[in-house]
Amino acid sequence: MKIKAILNTFTSKPDLYGNTYTYAQATNTRTGESCSWITHSAGNASAELKKTLGLDFGEFTHNEVLKVPIRDFNRDSKGLPFDHEKELAKVFNKIKVEK
Q: Does residue 31 surpass a pLDDT of 90?
């Protein structure tokens, strides 16, 4: 099975209250186009990519980066859309992976 997308997730170190935050970046391996969004967890990002683009788990690879310092995380994720279904459709439309 050919890899059609690369999913990278970035999870922050816990904040003062123990909360962690995650954002994801998906890249189309054929075109190089990518999109990013804020998500609840790395597992959610995989499920969102699979559901919205109709990919099987073998058609994309998932890399996790853990314990990103919170200030770096905030800087890198500033202005990204949240993972609401309507927003994700717009975000994923940018990378369009062929089946």
A: no
